[in-house]
Amino acid sequence: MPANYVLGFDIGGTKSAVILATTDSTLRARMQMPTRPQMRDAETVLSELTDLARALLEEENISQDDLAGISVVCGGPLDLEKGLICSPPNLPGWDNVPIVSFVQERFHLPVVLENDANAGALAEWLFGAGKGASHLIYLTMGTGIGGGLILDGKLYHGKQGLAGEIGHQTILPNGPLCACGKQGCLEALASGPAIARLARESLMYGRHKRVLSMADGKPANITAEHVIAAAKEGDNFAQGLLEEVGTYLGIGLANVLQILNPECVILGTIAVHAGECLLEPVRKAVAERCWARIAAGCRILPAGLGIQVQDYAAVAPLLYRLHHEEG
């Protein structure tokens, strides 16, 4: 009997998920759980995630023999050769976690490890807005900001598998502290937590009523989702925050475009939810800071897979290996 399904483990700093898909790239089911890395060690989280995977298989009446393999997607840095998660900023305490061997020992299946942004780039290149592109940049925007590069029609990893860390370029010297330990990183200025922090820091100006009401009147409860929702409702305060964030993001992208000259940039997660409230200032900042010919030759798009981009990304590395590297 051929193996007709794949599992994807999507490990994030806020939440983690298990995704079931067919080998012909159709998403079948998903389950998610909070990660809470500040409260639990890596082994506890991963044990719960593997239990979640078994529960999903049981619910879908899929046996382990029906699986072609498992892909594990996580924010970097990763050691792809050794199969390790190596102290990602958004997973404190996850130091050299042997994720590949952990999953293999429990499922006895092939396991592919990939950086979440690289996986997102693969997903959009294979199935989404970047289909057919030869030179593509993908940014995942959530708890952190990661980048994936498709160059000359191939996923680019760099010497140590660390290429594409666009979120950790310095935008503001002496700016806010990033989870990576540096100051003024793009991630510290434009990620989900950064948007929430900017909103809380701006409360003193008294223009925050809509955002604050969405957080039940408690500044500590404000999230990026509240800011985006208020901006979409026409709230000037929230729109101004997203314009500031979009400008920072555009500066970072202009740096990358000037170096790599891609044909498209695809923005996932937060950008999909925010839409033009974020994309318009991004495009404006890129146009102001790039050579005109480079900017004109590059499309800046929301992820074509929409809110499902992370689910496709969770299974894309294994699907790519099954159908391209081995086919």
Automatic annotation (TrEMBL):
<dbReference type="GO" id="GO:0004340">
    <property type="term" value="F:glucokinase activity"/>
</dbReference>
<comment type="similarity">
    <text>Belongs to the ROK (NagC/XylR) family.</text>
</comment>
<dbReference type="InterPro" id="IPR000600">
    <property type="entry name" value="ROK"/>
</dbReference>
<keyword id="KW-0808">Transferase</keyword>
<dbReference type="InterPro" id="IPR043129">
    <property type="entry name" value="ATPase_NBD"/>
</dbReference>
<protein>
    <submittedName>
        <fullName>Glucokinase</fullName>
        <ecNumber>2.7.1.2</ecNumber>
    </submittedName>
</protein>
<dbReference type="Pfam" id="PF00480">
    <property type="entry name" value="ROK"/>
</dbReference>
<dbReference type="InterPro" id="IPR049874">
    <property type="entry name" value="ROK_cs"/>
</dbReference>
<keyword id="KW-0418">Kinase</keyword>
